[in-house]
Amino acid sequence: MIIVMKTGSSKEQVRNVVERVEELGLHAHLSEGEERTIVGVVGAPLPPDLDERFAALDGVDNVVRITKKFKLAGWDFHPQKTIIDLGDGVTIGGEEISIIAGPCSVESEEQTISTAKWVKAQGATILRGGAYKPRTSPYEFRGLGVKGLEILAQARKETGLKLITEVMTPADVEVVGEYTDIFQIGARNAQNYLLLEEVGKAGKPVMLKRGLSMLMEEWLLAAEYVMAQGNPNVILCERGIRTFETWTRNTLDISTVSVIQSLSHLPVFIDPSHAVGKRAYVASASLAAVAAGADGLMIEVHPDPDRAMSDAAQQLNFQEFADLMPRIGAVAEAVGRVAPSGTTASAA
Amino acid sequence: MIIVMKTGSSKEQVRNVVERVEELGLHAHLSEGEERTIVGVVGAPLPPDLDERFAALDGVDNVVRITKKFKLAGWDFHPQKTIIDLGDGVTIGGEEISIIAGPCSVESEEQTISTAKWVKAQGATILRGGAYKPRTSPYEFRGLGVKGLEILAQARKETGLKLITEVMTPADVEVVGEYTDIFQIGARNAQNYLLLEEVGKAGKPVMLKRGLSMLMEEWLLAAEYVMAQGNPNVILCERGIRTFETWTRNTLDISTVSVIQSLSHLPVFIDPSHAVGKRAYVASASLAAVAAGADGLMIEVHPDPDRAMSDAAQQLNFQEFADLMPRIGAVAEAVGRVAPSGTTASAA
Amino acid sequence: MIIVMKTGSSKEQVRNVVERVEELGLHAHLSEGEERTIVGVVGAPLPPDLDERFAALDGVDNVVRITKKFKLAGWDFHPQKTIIDLGDGVTIGGEEISIIAGPCSVESEEQTISTAKWVKAQGATILRGGAYKPRTSPYEFRGLGVKGLEILAQARKETGLKLITEVMTPADVEVVGEYTDIFQIGARNAQNYLLLEEVGKAGKPVMLKRGLSMLMEEWLLAAEYVMAQGNPNVILCERGIRTFETWTRNTLDISTVSVIQSLSHLPVFIDPSHAVGKRAYVASASLAAVAAGADGLMIEVHPDPDRAMSDAAQQLNFQEFADLMPRIGAVAEAVGRVAPSGTTASAA
Amino acid sequence: MIIVMKTGSSKEQVRNVVERVEELGLHAHLSEGEERTIVGVVGAPLPPDLDERFAALDGVDNVVRITKKFKLAGWDFHPQKTIIDLGDGVTIGGEEISIIAGPCSVESEEQTISTAKWVKAQGATILRGGAYKPRTSPYEFRGLGVKGLEILAQARKETGLKLITEVMTPADVEVVGEYTDIFQIGARNAQNYLLLEEVGKAGKPVMLKRGLSMLMEEWLLAAEYVMAQGNPNVILCERGIRTFETWTRNTLDISTVSVIQSLSHLPVFIDPSHAVGKRAYVASASLAAVAAGADGLMIEVHPDPDRAMSDAAQQLNFQEFADLMPRIGAVAEAVGRVAPSGTTASAA
C-alpha cells in the first residue's frame, strides 16, 4: 500500500501516519520527494480495509492499494482454471460450453418435466427452475417451495439432467441441498454474506449471480466468502447490471467474461434472459456471450411463456430454444470451444 | 392497466390479449383507434406483475400500469403521515428533526458509552452502533455480536437514548429484537425478502436503507413486505446510490426526500455519512437533507475516527459533531421544523 | 398519446386537459372508468414533446406516448435495411462484416501509412485516424489538423482503403469533407445538434457514436437530425456507456446491436477499443460484437501502441490485430455473415 | 506519478519503463520492495495523459497519478474564492446567494418581460431565457434566435437584471456575446471543447453546466479549457446527472457543492429545475442546495408553465416562485449567507 501525503503536509502529519502503520505491526518506508512525501507500507497480511483507515488521516492526499483484496479467487493461489465435476460426465469450466436451461419458476410437474426433456434433447446438461422466488412485490407468486424441489428431483430422475435452483436464506440451505446439484445465489442476495457462508459450508457447487450494481472486485470478494469456508467450486454468472438504459431490463456487461478470466480461475457464465429481459434479444446475447469466451449460459425456457407465472417476457418457447442451440454450437466451435452435445456442426 | 397494440396488429392478436385478460378474472375494454387498438384492463385486484405478463404477447407494443404496485406504503390507504412513538417522548416523523448518531461499529464499552453520552448531550435521541457488520471482504472485522448488543443496552441504560442496530439474517431477528428499539436493514439486504418479513413479524419499528441501485418504487415495495406482516412502523433511509461518480463513496439522491413524501406517508431519513463517505463532506450533506425536508439524519460519530475498526474515513469526531448540531438546528427552524432538542437558536 | 388522470381528478381538470388538446389542433377521446378517466389524444402530427407538455397539468397522473419520436430512422418509413455504398466495392450494412482499423491519432506519415498497409493486408476496408482530437484536458495532444487529413489522403492513395475521421465543429465540416469518405461524430458531440445538421447537409455518410449516457431513443433522434437534412447514410456505433464499473474504461452495451436492429434499418457498429479501454480485452469484445450481429467493427491499431500520443492503453499492435482478424472471420461465418475479405476459413 | 510494477515483473520490464520515462525528459526514481518494484516519476510539467501512456506497458500493474490534471481551476494557483463582478452591484460567488430565474425559452416579449419583472421583484438579480435551444428531437421548438436575444436585451433595459443565455456553437459566440452578460454552456455541450475555447476568448463570464455523466474532475477540466484562454470567470452549475432512477428527470448530485468547493475556487450553482424535472420537487431541491452551500440557484419560471413551449413540466409559475424565495432567504441566513435582496427575514 502506498500513502501519498499532500503537498505541504507537515513532518508531524507524516510522523503520525508512520506511527499508525507501526501500531498495526506493519513497516513504513518513507520516500521524500521535492514536493511530497510518499509512505510505502509493507508487511503481511495487510488488513483488507487498510486503505480506508488511512484515507482520512490529516495530511493524507491519497491511498493506493497495490495487492488485490481477494486471494482464493485469484490466479496467484490457484494457477489452473477451475473445472467443476458434477458427476456422470457433466463438467463446468472445461472446453465444452455448458447450457443450463429451464423455466424461471417450477409451476407444475407437467411444465417442468416437459421442459426438462425438451432442453435435454437440444443439448442442455443442467436444468434450472425456481422453487423459492424472490419477487419485488410481496403480492406476487413466490414459488412452490419443497413441492417445487420434489418436482425438480423428479425431472432429474427422468432426464439425467443435473439441477440448479436458488436458495434465498440460510435456513433453507439444508433442504435445498438435499435436492439440488448446484446452489444458485440470486443477484439480490449477492452480498447476503451469511447466506454465502452457509452455502460455502454445504459443500456443493455454488453459482453466484452478480448483484445489480456490484463492482467486479466485490463480486470476487463475494466468491471469496464462499471459498473461505472451504468450498472451491464457485461459478460466477453475469446477468446484467443496472444502468440508465431502460430499453433492456438490464445492461449485459459482456466484458465481465474477459475481465473475470484475467483476474480469476473461476468459470464465468452469462444469463442472457435476465440481462436483456425481452425474448427477442436473448439469442443475440447468447451468441455474444459464447464468442466472448463464456464457459456457459443460463437460459430461461418455458412451454408457454405467455402464461408463465414469472418472467413471462423473457422466457423462450421450445421452438425458439431449439433454433438457438445449433447457433450456439456453431459459435462455440468458431472460437475453439466444444459445442454443447448434440449441437455440433456435424450433428446439425 | 392499458395494453397498447402495435400498429397493424391483427384481430386475432387482439382477441388473444382479451382472452388472457379474462382468464385472469379481469375485464377488457377495447378502444379501436384509426391506427391502433388499445385494451383497458379493469377489475381488482390486479396481479402486480400483470404488465410483465402481457408485454411479450404477439401484437403488443407497450403495457402501461396505472395503479401503483404498493398499497400500504402509499397515501391512498393511509392519508396521515406516520409518526412513530418510541416511548419516553422520543418520536420519529413529527415536527422535530430526529438525530440518530453513534459509531459505525460497537468496538468496546468505553468507546460506545462515551459516544452515547456525547451525542445525547448535543441533541441526539437515538444511538446507532453495529454489532453485526456486513463487510465486503470476509477478512474484515465483522462486529462483536451479542456482546455488542449488550454494550448498546448498557449505553441506553446510562443515557436514556433509544437504540438502532442492524440485523443481517432472519435467525438473528429474535436476539437483536431483545435489545434494540429499531431494527436496521442495511442497503445490501434491502431486497432480502425473508429478512424483511421476519422483522415485519417482530413488531418493532424498522429502518429500511435504500439499496445501492434500488428504484424508489422498489424501495416502497420493500417497505410493503414489512408492512404486509402487520408492522406499520417503517422508516425509509436514503444512504446514497451507486453512480459513475467516484469522488464521493456514493451519490446522495437528495430528491428522495420530496419524492418519497409525495408517494408515501412513511418518515424519510438521510444517512449523510455513507452517502458521501468522506468526513469533510458530511456537514454539507446533513444541512441539505434537513432543508430538503428529511424527518431525521443518521450520522456516524466516533471518539477517534482514525482508529475506527470500520468506516474510518467517514465518521465525525466529537468536536465535528458538536459543531454540526447547532447548524442543523438553525436550518430545521428555517424550514419550519423543530430543531433537535438542545440545538435551538435560543439554546445556541 | 394517452393521458391518465389521477384517481379523484375533478371534471374541471379533465375539461382543462381536453381544452389543451384541442388548442393544439388535436382530438381528445375520453374514456371514463370506475376510478379514473383516460384521455386518448389523436391527430397528426403529434408534437414530439407533447407528453412533457401534459405531464404537469393539474389532475394528470401519467402521460404515455405511443408513437415513437423518430421517423426516418425507423422501419415504418424504410422497410429495407440500409446498405451504404462507398464505391470501389466497399459497402457497409450488407452481408460482409466491415472492419475499420487504424490509429487513434494520425501522428506521422510513416505511422499512418504503415498502419494502413498492415490493416488492409489483414482484411480491413476502411482506415480510421484522428486529425482533430477531442481531449479531456486542454493540455493534451490535439491532433495534426489539416496536415493529418493530408496524411490520411496519402494513405488512401497508397492502399485503396476508404477513410473515416472525426469532425468536431461545424466550421470544420467543409475541410474535413474534402478528404474523408465518412464523417465521424464522437461520443462527446453526439448531441451537438448544429454539428449533426451540418454533416447532414454535407452529404457524405456519417458515423454517429453513442454518447456516454445516451438512451438508445436519443441516439436514434440524433441520427434523425442528420437524416432530416436529406442524408440517409448514417451508421450507429456503440463505444461503451458510462456506468459504475471502472475496471473497463466504459461498459460495452452489447445489446444495442439487437435492439437497434429491431428499431431501425441503419447499420450498427461496435468500437471495442473505446468500450473496454484495455488492449487485453479488445479481442473478446470484438468477437462478441460480431456474434451479436454487428455490421462492423472499428478497432484501434498502432505500430507501437506504448508510444502512441493518445489512447496508448487500448490500441492493438500489428501482430495482435493480425491474430484477431481470422477469429473475427470465423465467428462471422458461424453466424451466417460473410467474413472480411482475406479472413475466410479457406483463406486462413 | 507512481508506476507500480507487477509481482514478478522482470528487470527488463522495469528498465523499459525507466527508459520511457527518460524519453519524455522526466526522471525515474526506483524503489525495489521485497515483492514489487515501484517507479516514481518526477519532473515537470507531467503530460496530462501520462498515466494512460504507462498503464499498458508490459510488467506494469497500476499507475497512480498524484498531481491533479487541472491547475487554473484549483486552489493551488488561486487561493482566494472567485467572486465575479457583473457590474451595477451584482456579484456572483460572494456572501449573497444569487438567484437566476426566468423562462426555459424566450417565447415572446410579453412572456419574457412579465417574467423578468416578476422575478426581479422577488429578489432575482439575473434573468435566464433560451434563444437557442438544444432539443433532443429535430422536430421540436428550437428558439427564436436573434429575435430572442433582442427580447432579452429589452427585458434587461426595463428591469436592470443581468442576462444569461445559452450559446450552442462557436459561430454564435459573437452574436450572443453582443447581448448576454453571461454565456451559458449547456450540459450536452459540456465537452464541446472548441465552443469552450471560443467563449474563453470572448471574455465574458461563462456558466458551465455539468454534463449528464461527467466526472467532477472532467468538469473542472472543461472549466480549464475556458480559463486557459485567459478567462477566469467560470461558474459551475450542477443540473442533475443521469442514473438508473427515473422518477426524477435526473439525479441531483447535491454533494458537488461541497466537493467542488474543496477542489476549486470557482462559484458553484445548482439548477433544481432540470435536476428534478417536475415542478413539485423544485422547492425542496432549491432549499437543499442553499443549505449545502451553493453560491446560487438557476430556476425556471414561466407565466403559464402548462403552455410553455419547452420544459413545461418543471417550470414554476409566478406564485410558486414568490412562495419559494423567502424560504430560500431563510435557509441562506441559517447557514450564514446573505439572503437574496428582498427575501431577508426582516423583509419577509
Task: Tell me what the structure shows.
4 copies of one chain form a homotetramer. The first copy, chain A, is an alpha/beta fold and 348 residues long. Chain A has 2 domains: 2-64, 2-Layer Sandwich (Alpha-Beta Plaits), CATH 3.30.70; 84-334, TIM Barrel, CATH 3.20.20. Chain A has 11 helices and 14 strands. Chain A has helices at residues 11-23, 50-55, 109-122, 146-159, 173-179, 193-202, 216-227, 256-263, 272-276, 282-292, 318-334; strands at residues 2-5, 27-32, 37-42, 60-64, 84-85, 91-92, 98-102, 126-128, 162-166, 182-185, 206-209, 234-238, 268-270, 296-300. In chain A, the strands form 3 sheets. Chain A has an 8-stranded parallel barrel with strand order 7-8-9-10-11-12-13-14, surrounded by 7 helices. Chain A has a 4-stranded antiparallel sheet with strand order 2-3-1-4. In chain A, helix 3 (109-122) packs parallel to helix 11 (318-334). The longest helix of chain A is centred in the C-terminal third of the chain and has 17 residues, at 318-334. Chain A is elongated and about 75 Å long. The interface between B and D is large, with 40 and 40 residues.
Biggest interface reads: C-D, 53 and 52 residues
Helix content of chain A: 25-40%
In the CATH scheme, the class of the largest domain in chain A would be: Alpha Beta
* Structural domain tally of chain A: 2
Query: What does the overall shape of chain A look like?
Result: elongated
Mean pLDDT reading of chain A: 93
Tally of separate helices of chain A: 11
